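User: quick one - fold this with phosphoric acid mono(formamide)ester bound?
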Amino acid sequence: MTPTEAKRPLQLNDNGQLRHFLSLDGLPRELLTEILDTADSFLEVGARAVKKVPLLRGKTVCNVFFENSTRTRTTFELAAKRLSADVITLNVSTSSTSKGETLTDTLRNLEAMAADMFVVRHADSGAAHFIAEHVCPDVAVINGGDGRHAHPTQGMLDMLTIRRHKGDFENLSVAIVGDILHSRVARSDMLALRTLGCRDIRVIAPRPLLPVGLEQYGVKVFNDMNEGLRDVDVVVMLRLQRERMQSGLLPSEGEFYRLYGLTTERMKLASPEAIVMHPGPINRGVEIESAVADGPHSVILNQVTYGIAIRMAVLSMSMSGQVAQRQLENEAGEQN
Ligand code: CP
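Assistant: Sure. Structure tokens for the protein plus phosphoric acid mono(formamide)ester:
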């Protein structure tokens, strides 16, 4: 490892460009804005008759999802195809992982097939970071969600949705509601909102669903949904993550919905122009009423569309950051 590599954050190259996309933690506002601007330019590609640009022609993107996914996996696949990459999606449930092959061995084998990028979802927090530390130096790693830790492309597609519907972040009030404790989306959203200058970030949840250390995100915490929703411009609802929850953490789904469900009646507390977001999958009648999920305030399906553009931006920017890093290292080698 060179001294520069020792100092530089893992996900950036020596010029401060993205080379992996693992977390929004520590990424500067300029870089997040560049991702949003690049994604904005890619939205037009999705409206073309031939939805393709040649930016990743000749590159191989490998989707490796160790947890279930509908939106993230398919939109990464579409994003890579729209960039003209070759795409492999490994179905982990039918792969040799079930025969005991380790994560590292699985990835080593995919590297041997000359994969240029891995998009990884894993139940363990830190899995994407671990992989980025251990792959060949030319391979870019993109986090498609790791445990409770981070879901950075979801965070960025949420920011694109907010910016396109509500404009700049400074004067917005944004409420994030529900199962904050288990939510990697909440963590990525809070980091992105803070970095992009949002001054009123509210977190609304029952005490058992609040993690410790929320003060680092500069958020205001509300246990009363009716109080927290007052005059907000954006409501981000979260799914109750039963699969990550210890039994007895919540009394019942009915009680949760009564106190924290987003209903038509409760939406009257928010700004009249407020938007409603949800990363999906939605549990109708558990955290959100169908009339709200499908109603005039909802931009939930727009989030999915914007997700393709964000993933195109992250894939293309990370690949160019990797190529630029290789050139920098070659030039440094020639001078020595
Ligand atoms: N928002 C999200 O991550 O959805 P999937 O689990 O379907 O990918």
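One thing worth noting: The mean pLDDT is 94.
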